[in-house]
Design brief:
It is a single chain. Helix content is 68%, strand content 3%. It has 213 residues and is mainly alpha-helical.
Length: 213
């Protein structure tokens, strides 16, 4: 499956182009979380949204726990692991940071992720996965800032600032305009570039990095 951008600030959808029969269930679960919240992610609601019977659901999943486990694993794989892998293919730190800004603002299901964070406050297994997602996202951003700045402490601070901004954005009410998020993340990136170009840091080219790819 692949990510599909939606117009007018809608949540990114999941394409079922690989014909995975679980795809419609996962896509509908994201939609329910985004529009109705974690409290309404239930079997009857999900089946109604997908347009199937509970029998069809049990043809694809052993039980509700199996569904939630697979759904959350899918969220982790597509919205964190794969994006991190794609970011690391970028040749320089600026390209990596630009990709990560675009991914954070345009490819993450912000409303659904806010609901998953609520879910994590109730279910320890979801909390553990949420912590893993946060760590993995922090790590790939920190790697890019480290290549840009050459300073582990500064790279960690800039990466944490970006993560704090993303989490706050997802938890906020209102329209959650992704362009505003992108603008804010670009501002963090520009401050880091200015730091890298500072005479106190040797005024090196920010495109060169520090020995990574």
């Amino acid at each position: 499956m692949s990510l599909v951008l939606q117009p007018d600030h809608q949540e990114p959808a999941v394409s079922s182009s690989t014909h995975d029969p679980r795809g419609p269930y996962f896509e509908s679960a994201f939609d329910i979380l985004a529009t109705e919240g974690y409290g309404n992610l239930k079997l009857a609601v999900l089946c109604e949204r997908v347009g199937v019977t509970t029998g069809a659901f049990y043809h694809n999943f052993l039980n509700w726990r199996d569904f939630t486990r697979q759904f959350l694993a899918h969220w982790h794989q597509e919205r964190t692991a794969q994006l991190a892998e794609l970011a690391r293919f970028e040749s320089g730190p600026l390209d990596r940071l630009e990709f990560l800004v675009s991914a954070a603002s345009r490819l993450l299901p912000h409303r659904a992720e806010a609901a998953i964070r609520v879910w994590s406050s109730i279910d320890p297994a979801v909390a553990a996965l949420q912590e893993s997602v946060d760590r993995e996202r922090l790590a790939v951003v920190q790697e890019a800032f480290l290549d840009l700045l050459g300073d582990e402490a500064e790279a960690e601070r800039f990466a944490q600032l970006g993560l704090f901004l993303l989490v706050g954005f997802e938890q906020s009410g209102g329209s959650r305009d992704p362009e505003t998020l992108a603008w804010s993340l670009h501002l963090i990136k520009q401050v880091a570039v200015d730091r890298a170009m500072s005479p106190l840091k040797g005024a090196r080219s920010p495109d060169s990095g520090h020995g990574r790819r």
